[in-house]
Amino acid sequence: MRFTNSIRFTTHQTFKKQKALPRHIQYLLLTLAPGYFLFLGLIVQPFPEMIKGLISIFTEPDFLITDYVAVGGVGAALVNASLITIMCIILMYILNMNIDGSAIAALSLMLGFSLFGKNLVNIWSIILGVAIYARYQRVPLSNYLYIGFYGTSLSPIITHTVQLVHLALPARLCLSVLVGILIGAIMPPLCAHLINTHKGFSLYNGGFAAGIIATVIISVYKSFGIEVEKRLLWATGYNLMFTEILIPFFAILIIIGSLVERNAWRKYLNILKYPGISGTDFTACEGYGATLINMGVNGIFCTLYLLIIGADLNGASIGGIFTVVGFSATGKTIRNITPIMLGITLASVSKTWSINDPAAVLALMFGTTIAPIAGQFGFFVGIIAGFLHAAVVKNIGIVYGGMNLYNNGFSGGIVAAFLVPIVKSIENRHAKSKGII
Question: Is the bond leading into 422 cis (omega within 30 degrees of zero)?
Answer without folding.
Answer: no
